[in-house]
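Could you help me review a protein record that somebody else here produced? This is what I was given.
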Amino acid sequence: MLTIRTPQPLSHCRALSANPDVIRDFFGKLGAIFGRLNLLSKPMQIYNCDESGISIVHCPGRVVTKLGRRTVYSLTSAEKGRTHTVVACVSATGFVLPPLMVYPRKRPVPDNFKEGAVPNTSFHTSENGWINSNIFLEWLKFFVANIPPTRP
């Protein structure tokens, strides 16, 4: 039996790496590092930092799939459209650092772009709206300056 579902965009690279063997290997290695550094008893020293691109590319419409499928993907190109990047970071205890925003522009971010933002959000620009090594280094300095002094 078929049903109509709205697919979630999934890049080709992520589609290849989203398999049980790759995921199992990753968490095996991560567990070994946590054990070696005794981090399981120190959640205040565990942080998750991730970037997410916000694209203005139109999302695909609804598709026909088997009834009962909860998740349906549609391969998309990450290269089309203009992307804005958001970097977020939170500790296992719930401590949240202000985000970093990267806009696709050559000039500095205007004040009206900053209205309503989380206090102390770090605003940057790059030609394509993606984070680059210089922007990441600035964010990393901010991260180190704003986390508790205890290190793994």
Observations:
- The two ends are 53 Å apart (CA to CA).
- The beta strands are 2-5, 8-10, 47-55, 63-66, 73-75, 83-91, 96-104, 122-126.
